[in-house]
Every structure is written in C-alpha cells, then in structure tokens.
Amino acid sequence: MKKIIFVNLLSTLSILAIDIDMDKLSYGVGVGQIYNGFGGNIHIATQKEMKYIALGCTEFSDEDNKDREGICGLGIGYLRTDILPKYLPKFFSDTNKHGIGASFSIMNNNYTNRVDLLFAYGYTYFTEGISNRGWNFGVSPTYQYSKKADDKLGIIINIGYQF
Predict the structure, then answer these.
(1) What's the Cα-to-Cα distance from 79 to each of 16, 66, 83, 141, rounded to whole Å?
(2) Which residues of 57-78 are buried (b: 16+ CB within 10 A; e: fewer)?
(3) Using an 8 Å Cβ cutoff, are 107 and 135 in contact?
(4) Structural domain total, the chain
(5) Is 107 in contact with 113 (CB distance < 8 Å)?
(6) DSSP assignment of 54-86, as one string?
(7) Range(s) of the domain holding residue 81
(8) Residue 129 gets which letter from DSSP?
(9) Is the entire prediction scored with pTM above 0.85?
(10) Other C-beta atoms within 10 Å of 142: how many?
(11) CA distance 52 to 122
(12) Phi and psi at residue 37, in whole multiples of 5°?
C-alpha cells in the first residue's frame, strides 16, 4: 500500500511540475484545510487563486491511547477569491482576501492500516490577500471516508501563515 501512495505522490508532483514558474512558488505552515490538518503546504498563488500541495496530520497518539496512532497524508487543493462577490455585499468584491476552495487528501490511517480519503470545502480569510505573505483564518467542513472504520464528518478551523 505504501508503494501505491508513493507512486501516486510522484505522479501528482510530476503533473503539477510541468508548468510551474519557480518565482511564484511559496509555502505556508499551520493547521486547517490548506495545511492538510496540522502541517504545511507548497503553493502557487495569483491575485485570485491558489493551487497547493499539503502534507500534514489530522490525528496524533498520546500516552493513554497508543493503539490509535497518527493519521497523516498528502493533499491537493484549490482556492479562489472571486466566487463570493457574486452573492455577497460589495465589501467582499473589493478584495482578494476571501477565498473559497476545496481539497482532497489521501491519509495513511495507522489505526485501521488502511488509506482514508479526506474531502474538505471551506472559507479562508487572508489578512494581506491570497497572493501575499500573511496570516489566514477560516473554517472548513470535512468528510473522511474509511473502508474499515466509520466515516467521519467534521469541521476544521484554519489558522496559518503563508510565506
């Protein structure tokens, strides 16, 4: 199973690397949808959109619960800032700070020894704009699909810094 995940990772990275302007490549760290849980991302952002690959964990083990180890993985996502202006007051249309996006993650679940799929769709507010350095905050509903365990619905709070 780990070989399949590794091959998928390399395939995804090679597809995304075809048309990348390295001057526009940046990164961020934090917790939430755009960081694949608690982790980091590598992204390309323009004035209206962000495409990213994120590596992170959504669950960790502790001393009292050693049988439930971390659930970590790789995700890809897309955010866009010109979706909200069509539906909300003018305040939202004058800025590139309000992003709506979706992400898909492949998570290695050590508890079930299976691969889980995580889908998220959410809102992120960028304090300095989507293409600039700065803090971001948001909220994302999530759906985690697991073949062996129960599926989970949840909400991830987004807090992070884009460099």
Answers:
(1) 16, 36, 10, 15
(2) bbbeeeeeeeeeebbbbbbbbb
(3) no
(4) 1
(5) no
(6) EEEEEE---TT-TTS--EEEEEEEEEESSSGGG
(7) 2-162
(8) -
(9) no
(10) 19
(11) 15
(12) 95, -125
The DSSP annotation for 3-20 comes to: HHHHHHHHHHHHHHTTT-
β-strands 98-109, 49-59 pairing:
unpaired
Mean pLDDT of 4-32: 66
Tokens of residue 145, six digits: 């699909």
Measured in whole angstroms, the distance separating CA 150 from the mean position of its chain's CA atoms is 22
* H-run or E-run covering 2: helix 2-16
Q: What is the pLDDT of residues 25-66, one digit of tens each?
A: 899 999 998 998 899 999 999 988 999 999 998 876 555 555
Q: Are 124 and 148 in contact (CB under 8 A)?
A: no
Q: How many CB atoms lie under 10 A from the CB of residue 133?
A: 13
Angle CA 19–161–136, to nearest 5: 95
Amino acid at 111: Y
DSSP string, 84-112: GGGTS-HHHHT-S-EEEEEEEEEEEETTT
Given the structure tokens 């619905």, which residue do they identify?
A: 153
Residue whose C-alpha is closest to residue 125's, from 151, 99, 153: 99
By CB atoms closer than 10 A (0-12, 13-18, 19+), residue 33 is: buried
How many Cβ atoms sit within 10 Å of the Cβ of residue 153? 8
